[in-house]
Amino acid sequence: MKFLVTLSLAALAAATPVVVTKKDVSDPVVGLAVVEKRQRTGTTAKEFSQGGCRDNIFVFSRGSTEIGNMVCFLTPSTLLHFLLLFLISTLLSPYPFPSSHTKPARHTPQDIRAYPTTTLSGNRPRLTRPQLQGTICGPQTSDGLKAALGDDAVATEGVDYDAALATNFLDGGANLAGIAIMTDIINQAASDCPNSSVLVGGYSQGAAMVHRVVESLDPAVQDQIAGVITFGDTQNAQDDGQINGFDADKLLVICNTGDAVCDGTLNILPAHLDYTRRADEAVEFLVGKVQSAAAKSKSKRA
């Protein structure tokens, strides 16, 4: 009951109009309006699949039920889905939420590809499908990268997966078909664009996908990843704030104070809906990692 009340209040807060007389961009609602005016990246991003290589390739995966594939907040329309998920999880187990002390088994590429899906074509994702990326964190992070590095220097690619709520309860916390799609995108970027820096990000279930994908990549592909960021990371506690087998220096986990999913549960509290304002941190981190990778590459050539 406490979960239902908390979730209802969170959805009500997200749905209630906010009237302001002064544009305070620190406020998430007002900040969104300001962001939209300067936005370069829309809800659909397929710059890599349609345009090919650029100096930097940014791959982002959205959270559960979100429009597009780069969203970082939950809309009121998701309330019914969460209520149903809560009821289902309660019926299935007296402990419906993942334990923060239990590490999920790592998925091998073979495990991932055994999952039945109609979204795959051979060993490649159908990159001709709209690569939707949502409205807030993903596009804002992409916009920040483009502002810092140049529009033509960043190719943003969203991950087209179902983003259903129930797949949060799978071992590893994410949609297996989505993991396969994201894995293929990153592998393709590394193979087709050996001189590009790959940047990876995700929110909520999308963050869990980042964990499962990056930990399964070949070391050579991991080396080509300059930086990884996650928002509202549902696997933060389970994986001890890191990605198994990946350089911790190249990872930034962004978790709001009071966001229970970062503590190993799936309780959706208001803090989980408030990551718009944290996108600048992700941009600063990723730009720094791109610059470090460029300096390292230049040093090797000298």
TrEMBL record:
Task: Name the major location.
Answer: secreted
Paired cysteines (S-S)? C255-C262
Q: Where in the cell is it found?
A: Secreted
Per the record's keyword annotation, is Signal included, yes or no? yes
Segments of this protein annotated with the region Disordered: 101-130
Q: Which InterPro entries match?
A: AB_hydrolase_fold, Cutinase/axe, CUTINASE_2, Cutinase_monf
Q: Which GO terms describe its molecular function?
A: cutinase activity
- Identify the stretch annotated as signal peptide in this record: 1-15
Please identify the protein, giving its name as recorded: cutinase
